[in-house]
Structures are given as C-alpha cells and as structure tokens.
Amino acid sequence: MNDTAPTAVAPALAPSTDQAPPVLYPLSDGIGSVALIQHSGDDKMIVNAARVSFGGDNAAPLTGRDEKLISYLLKHKHGSPFEHNLITFKVICPIFVDRQLVRHRVGVSKNEISGRYVELQERDYTPTQFRRQAPSNRQASVEDDGTLDQAAAHEAWATASQTAFKAYHQLLELGVTREQARGVLPLSLYTESYYTFNVRSLLHFLELRDHEGAQSETRLFARAIGQLAEPLFPVTFRAWRALHHEQ
C-alpha cells in the first residue's frame, strides 16, 4: 500500500480559440503585460463548495439553478465557496503599479524578480501623455487641459531615467553589490511577478483597482487581469457585474 499522498497540480489553461488571449499588453508598449499561466476549478466548483454543506455536491453540468445560487452567494456575501479556485498570472509592470497591486494580499500569493539575484534590465515605462494633479483630490489626476508642457515633461522624465540607469551600471562596474546598486533605480522600472488569486480575492481586487478612483495605469492592469479571468468563470463574472450594476 502506498501511503504517499498525491501531489495536487492545478491544470494549465488549455488553448482555445473562443477564449481571451493568454497575454494582454495594458500599456500598449510591448513590455508591460499580463499573462495567464494556469488555473484550477470553474463555476461548478463554486456551486459544489456551497452545496457540500447540505451534502448536495455533484458532477452534473451547471444548471440554471446553479447559476441562481452563484448570484445568491455574491449578493449575500457568502464568500468562502469562491476561495476554492485559483488563477495564476505573470505580471510585468512598472514598480509604482506593482506597489498598488501588492497591497491586496488576503487570498493572494506573490513572487517577484529579485534585484539581489539578477542584474535588472534597463526597461522603464514612459507615459505617452502626462496628466495634471486633481485640484480637489490629493491622490488623483485629471487629463491635461493643454496647459501642461508635455515636451518638457517627457524630457525631464527621460533625463531622470537615463541618469538613474547610468548610475546603476556605474555602481555595478565599481563592484558595488546588486542589492545596494538597485537603490538608485526609478519607480518606473519594470518588475515582473507571479500573482495567484482565488476568485473571491480577485473580485475584491477588481472592485478596488478597476475603479474610476484607481490610478489610470493600475486600472489598465487590473482590467487586463479581469479580461483574462472572466472566460474561466463566466457565470460568476456575469452575476458579479449584474450585482454591481444594480448597486
């Protein structure tokens, strides 16, 4: 008799022509990206996790009654049945975006490239259009009304970035350790991470980060994550969006 417990492996997403693309580029610069790595479970898993309380879980196809149950669970904030599905993304984004993503740690796992282990690539994000500070909100921005000197802003950004990368490489050439040299790099530097969400944590994340109050760049990444996840749990997302439309 073999007493060794089997290792549970989340199945990788199978290629399909009717699903969203496996990789999206939120900033349209060919660098910043969200890739769907793998997922486990589906809408039926959510239903079974809820029905097991009454011994009613089953392997039958999803029914209209099941869809109503998912809507009920979301409406009445019964969250635990949504925690049995996992979705893993690889996210390449500017550090200032990643800092806003990483704030969501309940039900979320994260591993990031380390500037202690590797020499970081000279990849940084430059806005195509700079925004102005919102006059009535300390953490918000508004579109440029034509009074912002866009050319001067781009020049200042480029100069700061070039200076930072030059200093980084000089420090490395001098023999300074990578863990210290990275300290001069800008927040616009691209970093890359694996993020794993359960569906409950993902919906909470989307409520906050794909919201009109979120920073524009962060919202684009959140929206890409949602677009890749929605085809995997279509009933759940449809019910979730309907609920928010009602509210």
From TrEMBL:
Record-level Gene Ontology MF annotations: flavin adenine dinucleotide binding; NADPH binding; thymidylate synthase (FAD) activity; thymidylate synthase activity
Binding site for FAD: 80, 103-105, 112, 198-200, 204
Cofactor note: Binds 4 FAD per tetramer. Each FAD binding site is formed by three monomers.
Enzyme Commission identifier(s): 2.1.1.148
UniProt-annotated catalytic positions: 209
Pathway(s) annotated for this protein in UniProt: Pyrimidine metabolism; dTTP biosynthesis
Keywords, comma-separated and alphabetical: FAD, Flavoprotein, Methyltransferase, NADP, Nucleotide biosynthesis, Transferase
Top-level EC class as recorded in UniProt: transferase
InterPro entries (UniProt xref): Thymidylate_synthase_ThyX, Thymidylate_synthase_ThyX_sf
Binding-site residues, dUMP: 100-103, 112-116, 182, 209
Catalytic activity: dUMP + (6R)-5,10-methylene-5,6,7,8-tetrahydrofolate + NADPH + H(+) = dTMP + (6S)-5,6,7,8-tetrahydrofolate + NADP(+)
Known cofactor(s): FAD
Function: Catalyzes the reductive methylation of 2'-deoxyuridine-5'-monophosphate (dUMP) to 2'-deoxythymidine-5'-monophosphate (dTMP) while utilizing 5,10-methylenetetrahydrofolate (mTHF) as the methyl donor, and NADPH and FADH(2) as the reductant.
Family: Belongs to the thymidylate synthase ThyX family.
Record note on quaternary structure: Homotetramer.
Name the record gives this protein: Flavin-dependent thymidylate synthase
Organism the protein comes from: Deinococcus detaillensis
Lineage: Bacteria, Thermotogati, Deinococcota, Deinococci, Deinococcales
